[in-house]
Amino acid sequence: MKINVMQDVLQANDRIAAANRQLFKEKHNLVLNLMSSPGAGKTSLLEKTAERVAGKLRLGVIVGDIETTRDADRISKFNIPAIQLTTGTECHLDANMVSSALPHMELDKIDVLVIENVGNLVCPAEFIVGEDFKIMILSVPEGDEKPLKYPLMFHESALMLINKIDLIQYTNFNLKEAKANARKINPNIDIIEISCANGVGLDEWVSWLMAKYRDKTDGAGHA
Amino acid sequence: MHEMGIAQNILDIALNAAGKEGASKITRINLVAGELRGIVPLQLTFCFGIVSKDTIAGGAYLNIDEVPVSGHCDSCNSDFSVNEYEYVCPTCGSTKIKLTGGTELSIKDIEIE
Predict the structure, then answer these.
(1) Whole-number Å distance between alpha carbons of B12 and B6
(2) Which of B87, B111, B112 to mutate to test the interface with A (most CBs of A within 10 A)?
């Protein structure tokens, strides 16, 4: 006997994500889901961001890693509340994992919550966690063709940061090509070239962040 | 390896639906998977075999219908299929397009005994 089901497979995840989103709205948190491959510079970006927004925006971070608390330890040094989720074998964070971290964060004292996803260009793009925006880092050594190989992540992201731009002279990375590839998949994607090593582009990134925070809270935030 | 989590979700939904009908066995699950979801059928089938073992869905056939990416142009109102993930209207060149297919991931129906 055949029975109709017609149910979204990730419905359970999406329901929890909606609840997270509601909570973030009440707490006036701008929430970013930060994704990239391993080693692209997610944690470095957060460290540099923490320095630049100190006194202007209060950051909070949820870090997903398969093992170790190294990333949360790095971020905590900046006096930023950071919670590490070790995912074991899971290659991404889902809404339920993020939800489990929230009771441990003082969301009232956070303006921008960054969810640093597990380093992976595939799976994290599949799961919404309640974020306002997905943003991603593509680093120069990875190659300019990555948008074509991992289209979903580039399609889902509101912003692509091209990190390690200081290394471009040592590689065959074609900047024009990288941007064209990303815009082909996502014509509306914002792109900022940065270097966490020498600071290039970080002011522009912080402006992007501040603008999104203002848009979200529209004066109702606590900053 | 997001297939393991997805397999578990498929199993939960199928068991719930079968439970409501008082089924003793699930023999087939028909899944619709958009191309953008990046599902690897072989891997998903393998993971489903692991999570469904020792349940009434153990041994069920997981049928995966892949849906290509398609779009609708808001500028000229045409419908088209998206090739090579190029989100541009092939008729008028507009980038004001909506995806109409390729992102779905749902269980259509199941067969039970």
Answers:
(1) 10
(2) B87
